[in-house]
Design a protein that fits this description.
- By secondary structure, the chain is mainly α.
- It is 80% helix and 0% strand.
- Helix 3 packs antiparallel against helix 7.
- The protein is globular, with a radius of gyration of 19 Å.
């Protein structure tokens, strides 16, 4: 029960991170924000794992850092989408598609064929994506393309992170990956001309919230929770993130969501729920149709 509570709080903190990020990037370049946020977040986690990090072999460090590069690329695309987006709730639902895209990514990279649950959930997720985005005819907003690209990159991170999970402790891996995200973003900032900005108390407050609570504490609680509960329960709890993001975007940012987009988000949520539930059942159960009685 404690692990489930940890994961539940982690989803709330992740949703809070969406709101905090949007508020901060309205005044601060997104790439600079990601660089400082994730470097500081890794330093917050460092006291919890520095002893075990010191005992890691060079190969383990390189593996975690390599996976962190893909996370960094995904978050750079994501923060650009957040900067230009007018609807965080849409973005949160699109980003949640990474869980559906991941089996296809594993198939392309490692020839691991998706299970049958994937083929049941994929058409639903496509329908949900269409309802969510195609409200003005066959036109997709620029931010939605970036969210979808970030989701694809995040699926690569999911797959690679799973491959190294048996070779390095999760907390060690997370700490290293958060630092690499900050480093990748810092390199991007150095080679591009970033706009000048001024900090004030309001922005600093939301920056601290995004760094300490929505990044360091969120990943720490998520790691502790995933250790304590089975994978199915963890996945079901984690798909609450876009729901909380939608609620917070309505209440804090005053966003509005048309009925069609709300239905689209609900269909995506249902496709994720279906994928997770069917993935844990035997194939014979998945393919068996209920009797009409």
């Amino acid at each position: 029960m404690r692990g489930a509570i940890y994961l539940f709080i982690a989803t709330l903190l992740a949703a809070l991170g969406w709101i905090a990020s949007k508020i901060v990037v309205m005044e601060m370049p997104g790439e600079t924000f990601i660089a400082t946020r994730f470097m500081l977040a890794s330093l917050v986690l460092l006291p919890f794992c520095y002893k075990s990090l010191w005992r890691l072999r060079a190969k383990q460090i390189l593996l975690a850092c390599g996976v962190g590069v893909f996370l960094g690329l995904a978050l750079l695309v994501w923060v650009h989408a957040v900067t230009i987006s007018e609807s965080l709730s849409e973005g949160a639902f699109i980003m949640s598609l990474a869980m559906i895209i991941a089996p296809m990514t594993a198939w392309l990279l490692f020839k691991i064929k998706p299970n049958r649950a994937f083929w049941f959930a994929l058409p639903m997720s496509i329908v949900g994506m269409m309802l969510l985005t195609l409200t003005n005819g066959w036109q997709i907003d620029e931010s939605q393309w970036y969210f979808l690209f970030a989701s694809a990159l995040l699926s690569v991170h999911f797959v690679l992170n799973k491959r190294i999970s048996a070779k390095i402790k999760p907390l060690d891996s997370i700490c290293l990956q958060l630092f690499i995200v900050g480093l990748v973003s810092a390199i991007y900032v150095l080679i591009t001309e970033q706009a000048s900005f001024e900090l004030n108390g309001h922005i600093l407050l939301w920056f601290v919230i995004s760094t300490v609570f929505a990044t360091s504490m969120r990943y720490l609680l998520q790691t502790l929770g995933q250790y304590s509960v089975n994978m199915e329960t963890a996945a079901l709890i984690m798909i609450l993130e876009p729901i909380w993001t939608m609620i917070l975007s309505f209440s804090v940012l005053g966003e509005t969501l048309e009925p069609q987009k709300l239905i689209g988000g609900s269909v995506i949520f249902l496709s994720l729920f279906l994928y997770i539930k069917l993935s844990k059942r035997p194939i014979s159960d998945v393919t068996k149709m209920p009797s009409k009685s």
